[in-house]
Design goal:
Layout lengths: L2 H8 L3 E10 L4 E4 L5 E8 L1 E6 L5 E6 L3 E4 L5 E4 L11 H10 L2 E4 L6 E9 L16 E3 L8 H13 L5 H20 L17 H12 L7 H8 L3 H12 L3 H19 L4 H7 L5 H12 L3 H17 L2
Parallel strand pairs: 1-8
Antiparallel strand pairs: 1-9, 2-7, 3-6, 3-9, 4-5, 4-7, 6-10
Helix pairs in contact: 3-4, 6-7, 8-10
């Protein structure tokens, strides 16, 4: 079982094309007010990215580089650190990011081209990959694994030479790019312990989580899970907690509630069926667990989420 693919699917991570910047000469543009993860792809030229820390932190970007900021922090893109003049009205910039428009910056012919992508997810799901990543993930064009640079080049070609069904191609490529970025970044970093990504650093915990994901409705206990893995209960408990920051039982409950939340939102299955699908034969017990996890009963959660979906669908 591919655990990362499983979590990305359940958490509903999807990318949306944002602004496409074409810049030359001296330029800068602020990126603020992001409520989603932001990713920049430098398809040509170079740029600097500055985080609005104190003092500001600057990162040099070259053609082929990709940088992801899972928390969407306010930042600046420019031709040089702390220099350059923004020639775009902030309102125009905000609209371009929202509508996926082209922003042209600087007084000279464009040498730098940057595509911005936003990634959002189902925030009612507690098990997330994006939330476990650091503030900035920077993958250089020559650092990614085979296929990473191909995806970046394909994005550049689709943007520079639009063709039939180009939007569909771009929407697929941005989802592929996120997976390739995570693939490229994970082997180069350690220190994931205590987060969901810590599962990737301990083979025993990885195997345990695969069993929980494969059969979430099975009446697992730490003892039966340890027995299936041929280790002691104490060993499994210690290593699972060290890797993920949770006990096996706490993680299983969280995963079950995530699965239930998605099913309540996307199906019309009775609450009894949803409860049984995630391992609860007692609806009251399921309702109590779900209310502890999400703050509302399953019925109210379903009604609220469908109201939200109808409101989103009615907004042009």
């Amino acid at each position: 079982m591919d655990l990362i693919a499983d979590v990305l699917e359940i958490s509903g991570v999807r990318g949306t094309i944002g602004a496409y910047m074409e810049a030359g000469g001296s330029w800068s543009v602020p990126v603020a007010g992001c409520t989603m993860a932001v990713l920049h792809v430098v398809t040509a030229g170079s740029a600097w990215l500055g985080l609005e820390d104190s003092p500001p932190q600057w990162l040099e970007l070259a053609a082929g580089d990709v940088v992801l900021m899972p928390g969407g922090p306010s930042h600046v893109l420019g031709s040089a650190p702390a220099t350059g003049t923004s020639v775009a009205d902030p309102a125009v910039v905000a609209r371009a990011f929202e509508a996926g428009e082209v922003i042209r910056l600087g007084s000279q012919p464009a040498r730098t081209r940057i595509l911005t992508i936003s990634y959002d997810c189902d925030h009612t799901v507690h098990t997330q990959v994006l939330g476990a990543l650091p503030e900035v993930v920077h993958i250089r064009g020559d650092q990614g694994e085979a296929g990473f640079d191909d995806t970046v080049r394909m994005l550049g070609r689709e943007l520079s030479h639009p063709r039939l069904a180009g939007r569909a191609v771009l929407n697929s490529l941005v989802d592929v790019l996120l997976v390739q970025l995570v693939r490229a970044w994970l082997p180069t970093r350690s220190g994931h312990r205590g987060t969901w990504l810590g599962v990737l650093e301990d083979p025993l915990v990885h195997s345990a989580m695969e069993l929980l994901h494969a059969e979430p409705a099975r009446p697992w206990t730490t003892t039966t899970l340890a027995s299936a893995l041929h280790v002691s209960r104490a060993t499994l408990s210690r290593r699972f907690l060290a890797a993920t920051g949770q006990s096996p039982a706490a993680y299983l409950t969280q995963w079950r509630m995530d699965l239930a939340a998605v099913r309540l939102r996307k199906t019309r299955d009775p609450v009894e069926s949803v409860a049984a699908a995630v391992g609860y034969m007692s609806v009251p017990a399921f309702s109590r667990a779900f209310t502890r996890s999400h703050g509302v009963t399953p019925g109210r959660f379903r009604a609220a989420r469908r109201d939200d979906d109808r409101l989103s669908a009615s907004i042009p």
